[in-house]
Design brief:
This protein is of the alpha/beta class. It contains 13 helices and 8 strands. Strand 1 and strand 2 form a beta hairpin. It binds Fe4 H S5 and zinc ion (2 copies).
Length: 307
C-alpha cells in the first residue's frame, strides 16, 4: 500500500475513496477535508467564537486539534457528568481534556455537575427512575441543555460537536427504523440558531471513526480509550455493528446512506422540524427562561430542582 501523493509507505487505506496516504499526507487530508465540510455546509468562519464540546475521547479532541491547527477561534467545554461508579470514566476523561488544552494553551471550561447541581447524572437518573436502568435520557437532556446555555451565556457564535459518520449513520438508522420524523427533520450537519438556541455544527460528520482514531494516534493525542460504561450494549452500539457489516461488504455504504439522506433533506423531505421550532418560540421556562415544550418549568429545571 503506497501513498497516493508521494509513493511512500501508506499508514491508512481509505477504502471508500480507494486511496491510501502516508502519515504526512493523511494529516494534511484530514485538515483539508474538515475545511471543505465547514465551507460546504456554511458552518462558521475564522472570525467567529466557537465552543467545542469535548468528552476526552478521540473524536472531540481530534476535532479540537484540527480546528486549532486550521486557525479557528475555538474554546472547549467539558461537562463532568460524575460517571465514576464502575471505573473513573469522568475523572479520566476530564484529565485528558485538561492535558490537551494545557499543552496547546487553549481555553477549557469545566462544569462539574455534582458541584453545581448537587448530584451526578447517574444519581439524578436513579432518583427520578426515568432512565430505567441507564441514565442516558437524563444525561442527554443535561448535555443538550448545558451546551446550549454555555454557548448563549458565553456569547459564542456556534456549538460544535464531534459526531463522526459512524455516529450519524447509526443515529439515522435508528431514526429510519422508528420513523422518528422529528429527528429525521433535523439531523443536518448544521442547525442554524433560532430564538433561545445557539447554532450547532458537526464538522467531523464525514469522517469514519477509524479515520478520526488514526488521526488522534498519529498526532500523539492522549485520549480516554474506554467508552462510557453505560454505552456498552446500547442500541447505538448495536446499530453501529449492523452498519459495519454492511460497510464490510460494500465499502462506502455508510457514506452513501448518510449523504443520500442529506440530499433528501435538502430537497425538503421531513419538513416537520420547522413547525416545531416555531412552536418552541412561544413558550419559555418560568425558571430559567429557555424555550421549552412544557408549560411552566422546563424538563432540565425539573430534573435538577429537587436535587
Ligand atoms: S448518554 Fe449514556 Fe452517553 Fe451519557 S450516560 Fe454515558 S452512554 S455519556 S453518549
Ligand atoms: Zn505521502
Ligand atoms: Zn428551565
Amino acid at each position: 500500500m503506497k501513498c497516493k501523493k508521494c509513493g511512500q509507505k501508506a499508514v491508512i487505506d481509505l477504502r471508500q475513496h480507494n486511496i491510501a496516504y502516508c502519515q504526512e499526507h493523511y494529516l494534511e487530508w484530514v485538515l483539508n477535508q474538515t475545511e471543505r465540510v465547514i465551507e460546504k455546509y456554511d458552518m462558521f468562519t475564522k472570525d467567529e467564537r466557537l465552543l467545542v464540546a469535548v468528552s476526552g475521547g478521540k473524536d472531540s479532541l481530534a476535532m479540537w486539534d484540527v480546528l486549532w491547527q486550521l486557525g479557528y477561534n475555538v474554546d472547549g467545554l467539558y461537562l463532568d457528568l460524575g460517571i465514576n461508579d464502575q471505573d473513573p470514566y469522568s475523572e479520566n476523561s476530564r484529565q485528558f481534556c485538561q492535558q490537551f488544552a494545557a499543552a496547546r494553551q487553549l481555553q477549557l471550561k469545566i462544569i462539574d455537575i455534582r458541584a453545581k447541581y448537587g448530584e451526578t447524572v447517574p444519581e439524578m437518573a436513579s432518583r427520578t427512575k426515568r432512565g430505567h436502568t441507564k441514565p442516558c435520557s437524563q444525561c442527554g437532556l443535561v448535555k443538550r441543555y448545558l451546551l446550549n446555555k454555555e454557548a448563549l451565556d458565553g456569547g459564542y457564535d456556534a456549538i460544535l460537536t464531534a459526531h463522526n459518520l459512524d455516529d450519524e449513520a447509526a443515529f439515522l438508522f435508528a431514526n429510519v427504523t422508528h420513523w422518528s420524523l422529528d429527528y429525521l427533520g433535523r439531523q443536518y450537519p448544521l442547525l442554524p440558531a433560532t430564538t433561545g438556541f445557539a447554532r450547532k455544527a458537526k464538522p467531523f460528520c464525514r469522517f469514519y471513526e477509524r479515520e478520526t482514531a488514526t488521526y488522534a494516534i498519529l498526532r500523539g493525542i492522549q485520549y480516554v480509550y474506554t467508552e462510557c460504561p453505560y454505552a456498552v450494549g446500547s442500541k447505538q452500539m448495536r446499530n453501529k455493528r449492523y452498519l459495519n457489516l454492511m460497510e464490510d461488504e460494500q465499502p462506502g455504504f455508510k457514506t452513501q446512506f448518510y449523504l443520500g439522506y442529506l440530499r433528501a433533506l435538502k430537497k425538503g423531505a421531513f419538513p416537520h422540524h420547522q413547525e416545531k421550532a416555531e412552536d418552541l418560540e412561544l413558550k419559555r421556562c418560568t425558571n430559567c427562561g429557555q424555550p421549552t415544550r412544557s408549560n411552566g418549568v422546563c424538563t432540565f429545571c425539573r430534573l435538577v430542582e429537587d436535587a
